[in-house]
Design a protein that fits this description.
By secondary structure, the protein is an alpha/beta fold. Helix content is 34%, strand content 31%.
């Protein structure tokens, strides 16, 4: 009998504890997130105000209603970020946001709604707005990209990575609106490549071969365009 009473008492204590914890956690998940409950990790460039103004977060809002995946996509696009992770936390309460920025390797310009926007591109060809980078990150960049568009990004990435791994230096990369591509190599000067992006790897290899042959014959100073 004593054992049964102890067992019932233990079950009662466990049930009460479970109900208390469930109620407490439910209360925490419905507690509203305010601006002071947001923590940012990985970059000191962006403030909580930047996070809120570049997303659809409407504070204060219940923690459980924060759409983390949607917020990640918004911040990644609007702040030109490489990666973003947003986590809801109960202990301590709030939102944790982990940010990974992009590394610029060339200056860039693009047109948006008739307005010229100045920025940069990374090795993957992604456009980065100037105010989304720390100033020390874009010193000593020698290449410039003009006419950036999203549909040119893959081609641009191939050019930038090729340059990084071969003996060529493209000081200017220009895309016209119709996709016509012109490169300016430091020694070879202006190179007209056209608008067939499918053969860009072959074209880049030919450029390297031409430069190698001309270096051997010491005639680069006579080149105006190709």
């Amino acid at each position: 009998m004593k054992d049964q009473k102890k067992l019932k008492k233990r079950r009662s204590v466990l049930l009460i504890t479970f109900l208390f914890l469930t109620t407490f956690l439910t209360f925490k998940t419905f507690r509203k997130v305010n601006i002071q409950d947001i923590s940012i990790f990985g970059s000191k460039l962006f403030s909580v105000v930047d996070i809120v103004s570049n997303s659809s977060l409407n504070l204060p809002t219940p923690l459980i209603f924060v759409k983390t995946k949607h917020t990640e996509k918004e911040l990644k696009k609007n702040l030109s970020l490489k990666n973003v992770s947003v986590y809801r936390e109960l202990f301590p309460f709030g939102l944790k946001i982990f940010i990974k920025t992009r590394t610029p390797i060339a200056y860039a310009e693009r047109m948006f709604k008739g307005e010229k926007i100045i920025g940069f591109v990374d090795k993957d060809g992604f456009f980065i707005k100037e105010n989304n980078l720390a100033k020390e990150n874009f010193k000593n960049l020698s290449s410039k990209v003009f006419g950036w568009q999203e549909n040119f990004r893959e081609t641009l990435s191939k050019i930038l990575n090729f340059q990084n791994n071969n003996d060529v230096e493209f000081v200017k990369i220009t895309f016209l609106a119709n996709g016509f591509l012109t490169l300016e190599e430091k020694s070879l000067k202006t190179i007209l490549l056209g608008s067939n992006s499918k053969i860009i790897e072959t074209q880049l290899q030919i450029i390297t071969d031409i430069k190698y042959q001309m270096n051997k014959k010491s005639i680069l100073e006579k080149i105006n365009n190709i």
